[in-house]
Design goal:
Elements (H helix, E strand, L loop, with lengths): L10 E7 L2 E10 L4 H9 L5 E12 L1 H13 L4 E5 L1 H9 L12
Parallel strand pairs: 2-3, 3-4
Antiparallel strand pairs: 1-2
């Protein structure tokens, strides 16, 4: 099957369970998709938000910006589960020690 240079399919889905919201993001988070990730996480009010990025294969500066905005909107209630690639990007950008970043 010819991908024609297409990137892995991006998706961001939210699943609410009581006061908990779990947002699962897959594929590439970049300038075209970062805002969708942000809006999906902010769609429903929740006491605790888990952003599951373990299936993310690419994370650029637009994605970092969206993640920082999300952390500002959800102080003390956000947990980010990074893929190895996302963790590497966050560490390089100086965000590897943020309280919202789950330990390896």
């Amino acid at each position: 099957m010819d991908q024609g240079g297409a990137s892995p399919v991006f998706s961001a889905t939210a699943e609410a369970d009581g006061d908990q919201l779990r947002v699962v993001v897959t594929g590439e988070v970049d300038m075209a998709t970062a805002d969708t990730m942000l809006q999906t996480a902010l769609r429903e009010p929740a006491g605790q938000v888990t952003l599951d990025l373990r299936a993310v294969t690419f994370f650029d500066s637009a994605a970092i910006h969206a993640l920082v905005r999300l952390a500002q909107h959800l102080p003390g209630t956000l947990t980010v589960l990074p893929s190895r690639q996302v963790r590497r990007v966050l560490e390089i950008s100086g965000l590897g020690e943020q309280p919202w970043l789950a330990p390896a």
